[in-house]
Specification:
Chain lengths: 192, 192
Amino acid sequence: MSGLTPVATSTLGYALLGLIGRGASTGYELSLLLKEPVGFYWHARHSQIYPELAKLRKAGLVRPRPVRQSDRPDKKIYALTLKGRSALKEWVTEPPREHRSRDELLLKTFSLWIADRKAARALYESELTRHRATLRRHQRVARAYNARVVASTRGSATKAFTDYATLRRGIGYEREVVAWLRWMLQHLRVTR
Amino acid sequence: MSGLTPVATSTLGYALLGLIGRGASTGYELSLLLKEPVGFYWHARHSQIYPELAKLRKAGLVRPRPVRQSDRPDKKIYALTLKGRSALKEWVTEPPREHRSRDELLLKTFSLWIADRKAARALYESELTRHRATLRRHQRVARAYNARVVASTRGSATKAFTDYATLRRGIGYEREVVAWLRWMLQHLRVTR
DNA sequence: CAACTCATGTAATGAGTTACATGATTGT
DNA sequence: ACAATCATGTAACTCATTACATGAGTTG
């Protein structure tokens, strides 16, 4: 009667299902995606991905198709099974478990009262440079989507929309960090 | 000649040093702090804390003082050693290692194209409620500090300032999440 | 009388990183 | 010659969660 929780896999497993659901992929391709665009909010390395794919296969959520190649190593292209597709669909709208974020820079900030002022300035300045670069990168990518996709009224069930939605969050996040870093530096510059 | 990295402990170890450096504490007190105010950016449970305190003690970074009690269990109050204090001071301004954040809600958003629209709305609405509550809680706490502390010109080396700085980041973060969730809901409400 | 606070630990399991291992092709 | 790309795996280790374990005093 109530909402039973059908935990078929770990969150990483669902990350892989989500990627494979957009198009059949090899473990190698998944490792690239979980590094650069998707890796911004869910990161994993190949050493975690290959064993997880084996688990998904044993659970009947994905099916590999072996592809022989002559010039490069053979590969396996994974696709969702019907079971995998419905597991993904269910998981997507279940409330996320409270995840305890860990932000090392904030942890350092908490103890900044003990720090050398000059060293502190250097830290926040380099962080500002890093985050500004990330922000600009996100914005460059976003310009491609922008008006076209989102202005379309029935967009929210398209991959283009969900891509843009995550990007938008990334931009908002980085913008906020940059503003905060600038505020920090303002207060660290007052040397008196 | 160059900047050698003096990794004396894990990041959790430095989290504990940072807390103990503000005032000698028991493992129990540390576990409460790493749950509620500090836990917003670095969370840990008692089962991780007690073994870590033992490691810090063996490394000579903290020193426990046993306190016998009659009405409640005995306890150990940990204080920083000189070595512990300088380890903390060094760590604070070292660049944080690129931490790969994991945001389950964004991962779900990425695959939202597959979801049932009504279920999706419910998800983002409940997230909005949660984050609005957190934001209000942060803002209530911030009102106490506000003008008084930060307006003081030489504040940045005080615990009150660093507390306020982390809080401010928390407020900015939650505000951004709330704005993004509202944007998401706008697009999910268009049912056509 | 049940739940909560104070107080400290250990054990088992799961998640994630780093390192080990191999090997052809292509570009600098 | 050297590094990078494609391609897949395993092993050792660290980090983190959940569960096990105990026990007095207070609050509802």
